[in-house]
Write a structure and sequence with these properties.
Layout lengths: L1 E2 L2 E4 L3 H12 L2 E2 L2 E3 L9 E2 L2 E4 L1 H7 L4 E4 L7 H11 L2 E2 L15 H10 L3 H15 L28 E5 L5 H9 L5 E5 L3 H11 L5 E4 L2 E3 L3 E6 L7 E2 L5 E6 L11 E4 L5 H6 L2 H7 L2 E5 L6 H12 L4 E6 L7 E6 L7
Parallel strand pairs: 1-3, 2-4, 2-7, 4-6, 7-8, 9-10, 9-16, 10-11, 12-15, 16-17
Antiparallel strand pairs: 5-6, 13-14, 13-15, 17-19, 18-19
Helix pairs in contact: 4-10
């Protein structure tokens, strides 16, 4: 693997995503820089973590990338890098999932089945970003606080949320805060460290059903890369976890709302839930930014399974980040 003269500042999910993509194409950064003493002198996928001071001392000619986006500390980190007087590169040079452009045939088909004009605008914006990646010229994104729970679909008093990739229960917390009237929550999280946090937060509620497994298009076991944060995923060379088709999970009652944030396994998980989609038509909120072709594979698959859905696309972060496909049955579209 070729080592690049790059320092990634930040060992959170964004930094791990960028590292994963760099390593997938055979490149390796010099090191991670991080201000947290607990993370310094450790390694992430073979890349050492140092303090910013030690990184600058060891690699004075390196280019630094602020690998942060989902943190309140982003402004301070950008200011810190600027004050160090080091070379920098824009984050978008290394943003995941801009390495493939949407095929013309898929673009045309999705615009024909899009549920509203904004969906087409977001799709065009994504196509343009992949051709000329530049945050400055992107269309404004939707407010982050609306992710998964936008105002264009109705809420049911007997809502059954199935949260695939529940992590520590952050989405569940937001769901309950927004909609106190609901029937059941099914939380699915395969990362054992995350699952312990999830159980500590919600294990005493009999109306919240917890499952420590992954979801895909088959039942069995798979290797799993456990990071104890939101970037855990199927694959890698970690220990195995159980995986199930959502169609075969005991959900007690049919779901009315399914959210999937499962780090690239969304297409397989949707195929493993095709009976549910055909028969019950729950609202879907599916992350479409983990793999490049998910931007078009996800809506086309959903449309093939259940053509009655209205398909709507929204983006909640710069670049490709937090791009979500929603599938909403017509009766739940807000008029």
């Amino acid at each position: 693997m070729e080592t690049k003269n790059i320092i990634l500042f930040g060992t959170g999910a964004t930094g791990r995503f960028i590292l994963r993509d760099m390593q997938a194409i055979g490149t390796q950064p010099l090191a991670f820089a991080d201000n947290d003493p607990k993370r310094q002198e450790t390694e992430i996928n073979g890349v050492k973590v140092l303090s910013p001071y030690d990184c600058k001392k060891a690699y004075p000619d390196a280019e630094w990338i602020a690998a942060v986006m989902h943190t309140e500390y982003m402004p301070q980190i950008l200011e810190q890098i600027a004050s160090m007087g080091v070379k920098t590169s824009p984050l978008w040079h290394f943003v995941p999932n801009r390495d493939k452009e949407i095929p013309d045939s898929a673009f045309v088909q999705i615009t024909e089945i899009a549920g509203d004009v904004e969906t087409v605008n977001v799709l065009v914006d994504q196509r343009n970003f992949r051709r000329h990646p530049d945050y400055i010229h992107q269309l404004p994104h939707s407010p982050l606080e609306e992710v998964y729970f936008p105002e264009f679909y109705t809420h049911l008093a007997d809502e059954h949320l199935v949260d695939c990739g529940a992590a520590d229960g952050d989405t569940i917390k937001e769901f309950i805060a927004r909609w106190p009237n609901w029937s059941l929550i099914t939380a699915i999280e395969p990362d054992k460290t995350n699952y312990v946090k999830l159980r500590n937060n919600y294990g005493n509620n009999s109306w919240i059903s917890l499952h420590c497994n992954a979801v895909s298009d088959f039942n069995g076991q798979v290797s799993f890369e456990s990071t104890a944060d939101h970037s855990s995923r199927i694959g890698g060379d970690g220990p195995t976890v159980y995986v199930h088709k959502l169609d075969d999970v005991n959900l007690r009652i049919p779901p009315t709302l399914i959210k999937m944030d499962i780090e690239g396994s969304e297409v397989e998980a949707l195929w493993g839930a095709r009976r549910i989609l055909k028969e019950h038509k729950p609202v879907l909120a599916i992350c479409a930014y983990h793999l490049a072709d998910h931007l078009w594979q996800i809506p086309l698959l959903i449309h093939a399974i259940q053509p009655e859905y209205k398909l709507l696309l929204r983006r909640y972060r710069p670049g490709t980040w937090e791009t979500i496909w929603y599938a909403v049955p017509p009766k739940r579209i807000v008029k």
